[in-house]
Amino acid sequence: MNSAAPPVLMFHSIADHYRSLPWKPIICSTGAFERYVSHLVKAGYRSLSLSDYLGCLNGGDRLPRKAVIITFDDGYLDNWVNAFPILKKYRLKATVFVSTDFIDPTETVRKNLEDYWEGKTALDELDWYGYLSWNELRTMSKNGVFEIGSHTQSHTWYFKSPEIVDFSHPDDPYMWLDWNRDPSIKPFWVQRERPKRWGCPVYEYGPSLTTRIFKPGRELEKTFTDYVASSGGESFFRSKNWRRQLFDLTAELGDDVNSSGSLESEKAFRERQVREIKLSRELLEEGLGTNVTSLAWPNDAYTSELIRLAHEEAGYGLTCTVEKCEEEAVADYPILSRMFVGEKYGSAFLDSLRFKTKLAASRNRAVARLLKTAVSCKKRVMSALRIVRKREGHS
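Above: the chain's sequence. Below: its structure in C-alpha coordinate form.
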Protein backbone atom coordinates (compact mmCIF):
# COMPACT_ATOMS: atom_id res chain seq x y z
CA MET A 1 0.00 0.00 0.00
CA ASN A 2 2.66 2.52 1.01
CA SER A 3 5.03 1.66 -1.85
CA ALA A 4 2.33 2.61 -4.39
CA ALA A 5 1.62 5.98 -2.78
CA PRO A 6 2.33 9.16 -4.76
CA PRO A 7 4.84 11.73 -3.45
CA VAL A 8 3.40 13.40 -0.36
CA LEU A 9 4.91 16.83 0.35
CA MET A 10 4.91 18.36 3.82
CA PHE A 11 5.14 22.13 4.27
CA HIS A 12 4.58 24.18 7.40
CA SER A 13 4.92 27.97 7.27
CA ILE A 14 5.01 29.98 4.00
CA ALA A 15 6.49 33.32 5.04
CA ASP A 16 9.18 35.81 4.05
CA HIS A 17 9.90 37.54 7.35
CA TYR A 18 11.56 34.45 8.79
CA ARG A 19 13.91 36.32 11.13
CA SER A 20 10.99 37.30 13.35
CA LEU A 21 9.52 33.80 13.55
CA PRO A 22 10.24 31.28 16.33
CA TRP A 23 9.85 28.33 13.91
CA LYS A 24 12.65 29.23 11.43
CA PRO A 25 13.66 25.64 10.48
CA ILE A 26 10.22 24.87 9.03
CA ILE A 27 9.72 28.03 6.97
CA CYS A 28 9.53 28.18 3.19
CA SER A 29 9.54 31.62 1.53
CA THR A 30 6.69 32.56 -0.81
CA GLY A 31 9.15 32.76 -3.72
CA ALA A 32 10.51 29.26 -3.11
CA PHE A 33 7.01 27.88 -2.58
CA GLU A 34 5.79 29.29 -5.88
CA ARG A 35 8.85 27.86 -7.66
CA TYR A 36 8.10 24.42 -6.24
CA VAL A 37 4.43 24.66 -7.17
CA SER A 38 5.25 25.92 -10.66
CA HIS A 39 7.59 22.97 -11.18
CA LEU A 40 4.83 20.52 -10.23
CA VAL A 41 2.49 22.04 -12.81
CA LYS A 42 5.10 22.22 -15.58
CA ALA A 43 6.17 18.62 -14.88
CA GLY A 44 2.59 17.45 -15.34
CA TYR A 45 1.75 16.51 -11.76
CA ARG A 46 -1.89 16.33 -10.72
CA SER A 47 -2.55 17.21 -7.09
CA LEU A 48 -4.91 15.11 -5.01
CA SER A 49 -6.56 15.80 -1.69
CA LEU A 50 -6.18 13.07 0.88
CA SER A 51 -9.87 12.25 0.40
CA ASP A 52 -9.18 11.81 -3.32
CA TYR A 53 -6.33 9.44 -2.53
CA LEU A 54 -8.40 7.54 0.03
CA GLY A 55 -11.09 7.12 -2.63
CA CYS A 56 -8.50 5.60 -4.98
CA LEU A 57 -7.40 3.20 -2.24
CA ASN A 58 -10.99 2.14 -1.63
CA GLY A 59 -11.62 1.25 -5.26
CA GLY A 60 -12.87 4.56 -6.63
CA ASP A 61 -11.05 6.56 -9.32
CA ARG A 62 -7.79 5.22 -10.70
CA LEU A 63 -4.68 6.89 -9.25
CA PRO A 64 -3.24 9.34 -11.83
CA ARG A 65 0.18 8.37 -13.20
CA LYS A 66 1.83 11.58 -11.94
CA ALA A 67 -0.12 12.27 -8.77
CA VAL A 68 1.18 14.40 -5.89
CA ILE A 69 -0.28 15.20 -2.47
CA ILE A 70 0.52 18.55 -0.83
CA THR A 71 0.12 18.92 2.92
CA PHE A 72 0.71 21.61 5.55
CA ASP A 73 1.12 21.10 9.29
CA ASP A 74 0.11 23.29 12.26
CA GLY A 75 -2.38 25.70 10.65
CA TYR A 76 -0.33 28.90 10.52
CA LEU A 77 -2.13 32.04 9.34
CA ASP A 78 0.37 32.41 6.48
CA ASN A 79 -1.18 29.29 4.91
CA TRP A 80 -4.24 31.46 4.21
CA VAL A 81 -2.33 34.67 3.47
CA ASN A 82 0.36 33.23 1.17
CA ALA A 83 -0.10 29.53 0.34
CA PHE A 84 -3.83 29.56 -0.45
CA PRO A 85 -3.67 32.26 -3.18
CA ILE A 86 -0.64 30.62 -4.83
CA LEU A 87 -2.22 27.17 -4.87
CA LYS A 88 -5.46 28.67 -6.18
CA LYS A 89 -3.51 30.47 -8.92
CA TYR A 90 -1.98 27.17 -10.11
CA ARG A 91 -5.22 25.18 -9.60
CA LEU A 92 -3.73 22.78 -7.10
CA LYS A 93 -5.24 21.09 -4.05
CA ALA A 94 -3.72 20.68 -0.60
CA THR A 95 -4.52 19.51 2.93
CA VAL A 96 -3.78 21.51 6.06
CA PHE A 97 -3.56 19.67 9.39
CA VAL A 98 -4.68 21.83 12.30
CA SER A 99 -4.56 21.31 16.06
CA THR A 100 -7.88 22.51 17.43
CA ASP A 101 -6.34 24.19 20.50
CA PHE A 102 -4.56 26.63 18.16
CA ILE A 103 -7.48 27.71 15.95
CA ASP A 104 -7.99 31.48 16.23
CA PRO A 105 -11.51 32.01 17.64
CA THR A 106 -11.95 35.48 16.09
CA GLU A 107 -14.58 35.84 13.34
CA THR A 108 -12.77 38.03 10.83
CA VAL A 109 -11.22 36.74 7.60
CA ARG A 110 -7.91 38.51 7.12
CA LYS A 111 -6.63 39.80 3.79
CA ASN A 112 -4.25 37.69 1.73
CA LEU A 113 -2.08 37.83 -1.40
CA GLU A 114 -5.14 37.94 -3.64
CA ASP A 115 -6.08 41.27 -2.07
CA TYR A 116 -2.56 42.52 -2.74
CA TRP A 117 -2.62 41.32 -6.36
CA GLU A 118 -5.94 43.14 -6.85
CA GLY A 119 -4.56 46.37 -5.37
CA LYS A 120 -6.76 46.26 -2.26
CA THR A 121 -3.89 46.34 0.23
CA ALA A 122 -0.15 46.85 0.45
CA LEU A 123 2.11 43.84 0.86
CA ASP A 124 3.46 45.06 4.19
CA GLU A 125 -0.10 45.50 5.50
CA LEU A 126 -0.90 41.78 5.33
CA ASP A 127 -1.41 40.30 8.79
CA TRP A 128 0.16 36.83 8.57
CA TYR A 129 1.62 36.29 12.05
CA GLY A 130 -0.48 33.79 13.98
CA TYR A 131 -2.89 30.92 13.33
CA LEU A 132 -5.87 30.25 11.06
CA SER A 133 -9.35 31.22 12.21
CA TRP A 134 -12.49 29.14 11.83
CA ASN A 135 -13.80 31.42 9.08
CA GLU A 136 -10.53 31.22 7.16
CA LEU A 137 -10.59 27.43 7.42
CA ARG A 138 -14.19 27.39 6.17
CA THR A 139 -13.34 29.64 3.23
CA MET A 140 -10.32 27.53 2.27
CA SER A 141 -12.36 24.34 2.52
CA LYS A 142 -15.43 25.58 0.60
CA ASN A 143 -13.25 26.93 -2.19
CA GLY A 144 -12.00 23.41 -2.88
CA VAL A 145 -8.30 24.31 -2.67
CA PHE A 146 -7.70 23.14 0.90
CA GLU A 147 -9.01 20.09 2.67
CA ILE A 148 -8.82 20.22 6.47
CA GLY A 149 -7.26 17.39 8.46
CA SER A 150 -6.62 16.84 12.15
CA HIS A 151 -3.30 17.43 13.90
CA THR A 152 -4.96 16.28 17.16
CA GLN A 153 -5.95 18.72 19.87
CA SER A 154 -3.05 19.87 22.05
CA HIS A 155 0.16 19.53 19.95
CA THR A 156 2.36 20.16 22.96
CA TRP A 157 5.02 18.51 25.11
CA TYR A 158 4.68 17.23 28.66
CA PHE A 159 7.10 16.39 31.44
CA LYS A 160 7.57 12.64 31.77
CA SER A 161 9.95 12.13 34.71
CA PRO A 162 11.42 13.99 37.70
CA GLU A 163 14.80 14.34 35.93
CA ILE A 164 15.62 18.03 35.42
CA VAL A 165 17.23 18.63 32.01
CA ASP A 166 17.17 22.44 31.77
CA PHE A 167 15.64 25.64 33.15
CA SER A 168 13.39 28.33 31.70
CA HIS A 169 15.54 31.20 30.45
CA PRO A 170 15.36 34.16 28.02
CA ASP A 171 14.82 33.08 24.38
CA ASP A 172 14.42 29.41 25.34
CA PRO A 173 12.35 27.04 23.14
CA TYR A 174 9.96 26.04 25.92
CA MET A 175 6.94 28.13 24.94
CA TRP A 176 4.86 25.02 25.61
CA LEU A 177 5.38 25.55 29.33
CA ASP A 178 3.06 28.56 28.99
CA TRP A 179 0.61 26.66 26.76
CA ASN A 180 0.27 23.94 29.38
CA ARG A 181 -0.37 26.46 32.14
CA ASP A 182 -3.06 28.22 30.11
CA PRO A 183 -4.20 26.49 26.88
CA SER A 184 -6.44 29.47 26.00
CA ILE A 185 -3.35 31.49 24.95
CA LYS A 186 -2.31 29.01 22.24
CA PRO A 187 -3.84 30.80 19.21
CA PHE A 188 -2.21 34.09 20.28
CA TRP A 189 1.10 33.10 21.86
CA VAL A 190 3.27 34.38 19.00
CA GLN A 191 1.88 37.92 19.44
CA ARG A 192 2.29 38.01 23.22
CA GLU A 193 5.26 38.59 25.45
CA ARG A 194 6.09 35.50 27.44
CA PRO A 195 5.78 35.60 31.24
CA LYS A 196 9.21 35.86 32.83
CA ARG A 197 9.17 32.78 35.05
CA TRP A 198 12.94 32.49 34.80
CA GLY A 199 14.51 29.47 36.43
CA CYS A 200 11.52 27.12 36.29
CA PRO A 201 12.88 23.57 36.05
CA VAL A 202 12.36 21.83 32.70
CA TYR A 203 12.02 18.14 33.38
CA GLU A 204 12.60 15.34 30.88
CA TYR A 205 9.78 15.74 28.38
CA GLY A 206 8.12 14.15 25.35
CA PRO A 207 5.30 14.66 22.79
CA SER A 208 1.83 14.88 24.29
CA LEU A 209 0.35 11.79 22.62
CA THR A 210 3.11 9.38 23.64
CA THR A 211 4.00 10.77 27.07
CA ARG A 212 2.53 9.91 30.46
CA ILE A 213 2.41 13.26 32.26
CA PHE A 214 4.65 13.86 35.24
CA LYS A 215 3.37 16.72 37.42
CA PRO A 216 6.10 18.23 39.61
CA GLY A 217 5.39 19.92 42.90
CA ARG A 218 4.86 23.68 42.71
CA GLU A 219 6.94 24.33 45.83
CA LEU A 220 10.08 23.17 44.04
CA GLU A 221 9.44 25.52 41.11
CA LYS A 222 9.21 28.45 43.52
CA THR A 223 12.58 27.51 45.02
CA PHE A 224 14.27 27.92 41.64
CA THR A 225 12.40 31.06 40.52
CA ASP A 226 13.09 32.74 43.86
CA TYR A 227 16.78 31.86 43.53
CA VAL A 228 16.98 33.44 40.05
CA ALA A 229 14.99 36.50 41.17
CA SER A 230 17.31 37.06 44.13
CA SER A 231 20.35 36.60 41.84
CA GLY A 232 19.46 39.42 39.48
CA GLY A 233 16.49 38.09 37.52
CA GLU A 234 17.08 38.25 33.78
CA SER A 235 20.64 39.52 34.25
CA PHE A 236 21.45 36.23 36.05
CA PHE A 237 21.52 34.51 32.65
CA ARG A 238 24.35 36.74 31.40
CA SER A 239 26.72 34.60 33.42
CA LYS A 240 28.31 31.80 31.39
CA ASN A 241 27.85 29.30 34.22
CA TRP A 242 24.21 30.03 35.10
CA ARG A 243 23.16 26.48 34.23
CA ARG A 244 25.81 24.99 36.46
CA GLN A 245 24.62 27.15 39.35
CA LEU A 246 21.04 25.89 38.93
CA PHE A 247 22.13 22.27 38.58
CA ASP A 248 24.24 22.71 41.72
CA LEU A 249 21.08 23.90 43.47
CA THR A 250 19.34 20.76 42.15
CA ALA A 251 22.06 18.61 43.70
CA GLU A 252 21.72 20.45 47.02
CA LEU A 253 17.98 19.77 47.08
CA GLY A 254 18.67 16.06 46.55
CA ASP A 255 15.69 13.85 47.35
CA ASP A 256 13.31 16.82 47.32
CA VAL A 257 13.63 16.89 43.53
CA ASN A 258 12.82 13.23 42.94
CA SER A 259 10.15 12.82 45.61
CA SER A 260 8.04 15.81 44.60
CA GLY A 261 5.40 15.17 41.94
CA SER A 262 3.10 12.50 40.51
CA LEU A 263 2.84 10.42 37.32
CA GLU A 264 -0.32 10.08 35.24
CA SER A 265 -1.93 6.65 35.57
CA GLU A 266 -1.99 4.27 32.61
CA LYS A 267 -5.80 4.51 32.56
CA ALA A 268 -5.80 8.32 32.52
CA PHE A 269 -3.08 8.31 29.83
CA ARG A 270 -5.11 6.02 27.58
CA GLU A 271 -8.28 8.09 28.08
CA ARG A 272 -6.40 11.27 27.19
CA GLN A 273 -5.00 9.71 24.01
CA VAL A 274 -8.48 8.67 22.87
CA ARG A 275 -9.93 12.08 23.78
CA GLU A 276 -7.21 13.99 21.86
CA ILE A 277 -7.68 11.95 18.70
CA LYS A 278 -11.48 11.77 18.72
CA LEU A 279 -12.32 15.25 19.99
CA SER A 280 -10.15 17.04 17.44
CA ARG A 281 -12.01 15.33 14.61
CA GLU A 282 -15.42 16.02 16.16
CA LEU A 283 -14.64 19.71 16.73
CA LEU A 284 -13.37 20.16 13.17
CA GLU A 285 -16.36 18.43 11.60
CA GLU A 286 -18.78 20.46 13.73
CA GLY A 287 -16.99 23.76 13.06
CA LEU A 288 -16.46 23.23 9.33
CA GLY A 289 -19.55 21.25 8.37
CA THR A 290 -17.49 18.72 6.43
CA ASN A 291 -15.99 15.27 6.91
CA VAL A 292 -12.48 15.00 8.33
CA THR A 293 -10.85 11.81 7.09
CA SER A 294 -7.13 12.26 7.77
CA LEU A 295 -4.79 12.87 10.69
CA ALA A 296 -1.10 13.83 10.85
CA TRP A 297 0.78 12.83 13.99
CA PRO A 298 2.16 15.93 15.77
CA ASN A 299 5.91 15.78 16.37
CA ASP A 300 5.79 12.60 14.26
CA ALA A 301 5.07 10.73 17.50
CA TYR A 302 2.87 7.67 17.11
CA THR A 303 2.63 3.99 17.96
CA SER A 304 0.84 1.08 16.32
CA GLU A 305 -1.77 1.32 19.10
CA LEU A 306 -2.38 5.02 18.41
CA ILE A 307 -2.85 4.24 14.72
CA ARG A 308 -5.36 1.55 15.64
CA LEU A 309 -7.20 4.04 17.88
CA ALA A 310 -7.31 6.61 15.10
CA HIS A 311 -8.93 4.20 12.69
CA GLU A 312 -11.10 1.97 14.86
CA GLU A 313 -12.24 4.38 17.58
CA ALA A 314 -11.99 7.82 15.95
CA GLY A 315 -12.96 6.86 12.38
CA TYR A 316 -10.06 8.34 10.36
CA GLY A 317 -9.43 6.94 6.91
CA LEU A 318 -5.65 7.41 6.93
CA THR A 319 -2.83 8.96 8.93
CA CYS A 320 0.41 10.69 7.96
CA THR A 321 3.95 10.56 9.29
CA VAL A 322 7.27 12.13 8.20
CA GLU A 323 9.86 10.48 5.95
CA LYS A 324 9.52 7.11 7.63
CA CYS A 325 6.92 4.43 7.88
CA GLU A 326 6.80 1.46 10.23
CA GLU A 327 5.02 -0.71 7.69
CA GLU A 328 5.20 -3.87 9.79
CA ALA A 329 3.35 -2.14 12.63
CA VAL A 330 0.59 -0.55 10.56
CA ALA A 331 0.06 -2.98 7.68
CA ASP A 332 -3.70 -3.05 8.24
CA TYR A 333 -4.18 0.71 7.96
CA PRO A 334 -3.32 3.35 5.32
CA ILE A 335 -0.41 5.51 6.48
CA LEU A 336 1.48 7.96 4.29
CA SER A 337 5.13 8.89 4.70
CA ARG A 338 5.67 12.54 3.76
CA MET A 339 8.65 14.41 2.33
CA PHE A 340 9.57 17.54 4.31
CA VAL A 341 9.96 20.60 2.07
CA GLY A 342 11.65 23.83 3.08
CA GLU A 343 14.70 25.89 2.21
CA LYS A 344 18.20 24.78 3.13
CA TYR A 345 20.80 26.55 1.04
CA GLY A 346 19.45 30.10 0.61
CA SER A 347 19.98 29.70 -3.13
CA ALA A 348 17.00 29.52 -5.48
CA PHE A 349 18.90 27.20 -7.82
CA LEU A 350 20.18 24.81 -5.13
CA ASP A 351 16.88 24.68 -3.25
CA SER A 352 14.96 24.01 -6.47
CA LEU A 353 17.47 21.30 -7.43
CA ARG A 354 17.11 19.71 -4.00
CA PHE A 355 13.31 19.78 -4.31
CA LYS A 356 13.35 18.20 -7.78
CA THR A 357 15.81 15.53 -6.68
CA LYS A 358 13.78 14.57 -3.61
CA LEU A 359 10.61 14.55 -5.71
CA ALA A 360 12.25 12.21 -8.24
CA ALA A 361 13.51 10.01 -5.40
CA SER A 362 10.01 9.68 -4.01
CA ARG A 363 8.85 8.28 -7.36
CA ASN A 364 11.85 6.09 -8.18
CA ARG A 365 13.51 3.66 -5.77
CA ALA A 366 16.78 3.67 -7.72
CA VAL A 367 17.02 7.46 -7.41
CA ALA A 368 16.06 7.19 -3.73
CA ARG A 369 18.91 4.71 -3.08
CA LEU A 370 21.36 6.94 -4.96
CA LEU A 371 20.27 10.01 -2.95
CA LYS A 372 20.52 8.08 0.32
CA THR A 373 24.04 6.94 -0.59
CA ALA A 374 25.06 10.50 -1.47
CA VAL A 375 23.75 11.84 1.85
CA SER A 376 25.54 9.05 3.73
CA CYS A 377 28.83 9.80 1.92
CA LYS A 378 28.47 13.50 2.69
CA LYS A 379 28.00 12.75 6.39
CA ARG A 380 31.10 10.53 6.45
CA VAL A 381 33.18 13.17 4.66
CA MET A 382 32.01 15.93 7.02
CA SER A 383 32.75 13.71 10.03
CA ALA A 384 36.25 12.98 8.71
CA LEU A 385 36.89 16.70 8.10
CA ARG A 386 35.86 17.52 11.67
CA ILE A 387 38.30 14.92 13.01
CA VAL A 388 41.13 16.30 10.85
CA ARG A 389 40.43 19.88 11.96
CA LYS A 390 40.32 18.79 15.57
CA ARG A 391 43.69 17.05 15.26
CA GLU A 392 45.20 20.07 13.51
CA GLY A 393 43.95 22.27 16.32
CA HIS A 394 45.79 20.14 18.88
CA SER A 395 49.03 19.97 16.92
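The CA atoms of residues 83 and 246 lie 44 Å apart.
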